Structure formats: C-alpha cells, structure tokens
Amino acid sequence: MTPLRYRVRRRLTETADTVTLVLDPVDEPIVAPLPGQFTMMYAFGVGEVPISVSGHADGGIVHTVRAVGAVSRAVAGARTGDVLGIRGPFGTDWGVPPGGDLVVLAGGIGLAPLRPVIRQAVARRARFGTVAVLIGARTPADLLYPHEYATWRAAGLDVRVTVDRADMSWTGHVGVVTTVLGALPVDPAATTAFVCGPEVMMRFAARALVDRGVPPAAVRVSLERNMRCGVGLCGHCQLGPLLVCRDGPVVGWDRAAPLLAVKEL
Predict the structure, then answer these.
(1) Are the C-beta atoms of residues 117 and 194 closer than 8 Å to each other?
(2) Radius of gyration, CA atoms only, the chain
(3) Residue 86, phi then psi, degrees to nearest 5
(4) What is the 3-class SS of 140-173, one letter each residue?
(5) DSSP E strands, the chain
(6) Are 224 and 211 in contact (CB under 8 A)?
(7) 3-class secondary-structure state, position 17
(8) pTM of this prediction?
(9) Could you tell me the CATH superfamily of domain 4-90?
(10) Whole-angstrom Cα distance, residue 81 to residue 9?
(11) I need a labelling partner for 51 at 20 to 30 A (CA). Which of 36, 62, 72, 125 fits?
(12) Mind listing the pLDDT tens digit of every residue in the chain (265 residues)?
C-alpha cells in the first residue's frame, strides 16, 4: 500500500489533454506489470489515481495520462525530473493467447492499455495469424501514438484508423470505430478480441463481434469504475458481484454483458 518513488525520465505530449510519461524507479521497482494491468499513481500532496500501463522502456514504466480531474492533472503536469509515487501492479491482464488471430479495438484513450498487446504481437509476429488493430478518436488531433502506426503496419498488422469528425487535412475513414469492424474479415473460431474505450463503444463492439461468431469469453473488455484502494478492500469500484480493481479491469464479455446491461450499475 506504500507508493514507491518513480522519477520522470521523459514527458511526451500526445494530445491537448494527454501526455505519456516514461518513469524510472528511484528505489526498488514494482513488479513488472502484465499487459492490461494498472497502477495507482500518486501525485504527492494531491492524491492518487488508477492509470493503465501503456508500455515499458529500458527498465522503466510508461503511463499515458489524460488530464480530467485534480489528481490526473497533477500527474499529467509532472515534468522531467519530478518524482511520483506508484503502487501496483493491480488487476487482471489481457491474457494474450499464444497464437491465433487477434482483433484490437480501441476508442480514444482506450488505446493506451492496448498498446502493450500490440507491441507484444509485433515482437512475436510469427506466432499469430491475422492481427487487426482498429483505432478510433474524436478528431485527428485526438489520435494517440500516430507515429507508431507505420511501424505496426510494417510488422504485418492490419491497422485501420477512423475519426468521428474530420478536419481539412484528414483523408482517412470518418465514423465511429465500430463502423470499421464491419469490413474486417474475422475467423470466429480463431479470434481473440481486446476492446477498450468508452463504455457505449465497448458494448456495441463486443456485440458486433459476438454476432459474427466470436465466443463471448474470447471478447475481452477493460472496465472502468471508481477505483480507490486497488486491492478490493474499499468497495468503491463494485460492479454487481465484481470488484473491478481485483476481478478486472479485464473481463470476458460473457461476464461483463449482463452487468453493463443494468443501468443502475
């Protein structure tokens, strides 16, 4: 429960409200997180907030943070050399299979926790068949990691990008990310899908994948609730019978569907 100190090695501006921080341990490091897990990031004197791990870098840990509240603004405002606290890692991981076809479907900041899955697929490309990466954002200026798309494509990944609203420079697809899914060739029996983004997007995407024959348990979504302790004690992140910090954030659609269908939850 005690945050370990991490120093900001590098700060990259991603969008108007989102930054990526590369952090190195000041003392002992946390256990290496698995793709899909999160940490509790602490801004000293302000508070802590759950943030998904978006990568690793030469012994350090990478977090992509969107400034939406007091704590996340403080974390996102950290400069090179500043020290933050990190607890974790917590929660379930994506459970990337050893082979088969992969579909990665991300909306907005949801690409951050999916980035380790994509990088794992690139590093172990020969183990997988078709690897499709579908990325959606509100506008071209809101796209995360656009400089990495060419590398992913060069590794043989089918990367498709769409925006809700285009600007004068945009020549790609326009529409919500689920509209790109319809044109994707899918072998249901061989596919594992990973979905992260706004809850309404995840519902539509998961249903579309299941309708195409992908087993619900093979469609994995990352849930977001108000996580405070990270270890399933405080109950703030309860979603029906689940405590998201302990039983999630990654769960199969077979477990998530009946819970997300209840408006009160």
Answers:
(1) yes
(2) 18
(3) -135, 130
(4) HHHCCCHHHHHHHHHCCCEEEEEECCCCCCCCCE
(5) 4-15, 18-25, 38-43, 47-57, 60-66, 83-90, 100-107, 128-137, 158-163, 173-174, 191-196, 219-222, 238-239, 242-243, 250-252
(6) no
(7) coil
(8) 0.95
(9) Translation factors (2.40.30.10)
(10) 6
(11) 125
(12) 899 999 999 999 999 999 999 999 998 999 999 999 999 999 999 999 999 999 998 889 999 999 999 999 999 999 999 999 999 999 999 999 999 999 999 999 999 999 999 999 999 999 999 999 999 999 999 999 999 999 999 999 999 999 999 999 999 999 999 888 888 888 999 999 999 999 999 999 999 999 999 999 999 999 988 888 988 899 999 999 999 999 999 999 999 999 998 877 6
Are 75 and 43 spatial neighbours (Cβ–Cβ below 8 Å)?
yes
What are the tokens at 224? 């977001």
Q: Which CATH architecture has domain 100-260?
A: 3-Layer(aba) Sandwich (3.40)
The two structure tokens encoding residue 214: 């992908």
Measured between alpha carbons, how far is 223 from 186 in angstroms, rounded to an integer? 24
